Amino acid sequence: KAGFNLRKVNRHIKFPEVIDLAPFCTAKCKNVAEGNTKVLYSLYGVVEHSGTMRSGHYTAYAKMRSMNNHLSDLVLQGQAPQVSETEPVKGQWFHISDTRVQAVSASKVLSSQAYLLFYERLL
């Protein structure tokens, strides 16, 4: 009798706060200035699942972001600010579970058992 043994992977999968997708993009899709070789994305949301494949609970981590005046001015002028790969966009992280919202550290987010990751392109 053939059967399947389906089970959830519970080990932590490492993921970055800032990721460079340039190695996975064609030159056309990079849409970056001449000489710029990075296509950087910054993590802004994580969905985490706890429990088994048959039951469990979903929670989310979300980063509160606000554009400062200097960054807004650069974007409006069509200039891309310089962002280091090791410097994620600043912002407070929050853990959201049903009606509870709690401020958490970035290290707490990065150690979560992520089910879905949400990244946004850095300008």
UniProtKB/TrEMBL annotation:
SUPFAM superfamilies: Cysteine proteinases (SSF54001). One of its GO terms (molecular function) is cysteine-type deubiquitinase activity. GO terms for biological process: protein deubiquitination. Keywords: Hydrolase. InterPro entries: Papain-like_cys_pep_sf (IPR038765), Peptidase_C19 (IPR050164), Peptidase_C19_UCH (IPR001394), USP (IPR028889), USP_CS (IPR018200). It comes from the Eukaryota. Residues 1-122 form the USP domain. The keyword tRNA-binding does not apply. Pfam families: UCH. GO terms for cellular component: cytosol; nucleus. Coiled coil: none annotated. This is Ubiquitin carboxyl-terminal hydrolase 16. It comes from Buceros rhinoceros silvestris. The lineage of its organism: Eukaryota, Metazoa, Chordata, Craniata, Vertebrata.
